[in-house]
Predict the structure.
Amino acid sequence: MATPTFEEIEVKSVINRVNAPLLPFRWTINPYRGCQHACTYCFARNTHTYLGYDAGKDFNERIVVKVNAPEVLRRELGRPRWKREFIALGTACDPYEPAERNYLLTRRILQTLRDFANPAGITTKSNLVTRDIDVLRELSEVTSVSVNFSISTLREDIWRRIEPGTPKPIKRLQAMEQLSRAGIRTGVLLAPILPGLTDSEENLEEVVREAAQRGAHYIAPNVLHLKPGAREWFLPFLRESYPHLTPQYQRLYRRGAYAPRAYTEGVVGLVQRLRERWGLVGRDTATRQVRLGSQLSLGL
């Protein structure tokens, strides 16, 4: 991995509105732009082009840091018109990417959410989240909070190639177990499920079994989608690393960003059966989580 550069900026607002009716939230916070995790398939890559950067190396190596995000958030949450709606962290970057070790923006954002008893959810591929168990526990005592760990596979040969800047998947599961034991609602997003790489029953069951045994409250699937920016970065990677899969991806994604409904419904159905097999049905809000994952996979 190349040494990243950090562009420190000040922002006027930090809560972003999401215009996607089927998502279970309307508001997001992303303390960083770009992501050192360098996941080959990342759907957020195209957002870097809004800054005049490219969606490939620049996304991985030019990290924009919103240094005043916690202070701006405090002002926004204190406005009379704000109704304490749920806010999602980690929709266009990982709030616990390596930059967070030094900048502590996510920790300070969580402290601000705690002070205003504002519900929130986090999606991450990092075990760094365990550093903030104390704040997450305090937040959970005054409102609802959940932490989603994104995991595609436990196979290290695949993980090293598709997510080169992330902590090992097993470390994420260990972090999830720590959070669960601390009384924090947490689970796994099987995301993204990659055709021909991570969509086998053996691979999916390995993740579901480990998650269930480590205290996951829910598991939700999400099949890979290839939007502009991600598509141009992922397909060349595929041709270089897994050339035998290129024809399959050309067939599945020839009409756009999403795999055909029949394929996706088959994968979602398989995950549902695995959830039932490992006792995850009825645990917490699992049904709602799976429905959301299905909708995202189908592009609904």
DSSP finds twelve helices and ten strands in the chain. The first helix runs from residue 57 to 61. Residues 70 and 108 are 6 Å apart (CA to CA). Confidence is low (pLDDT under 50) at residues 285-300.
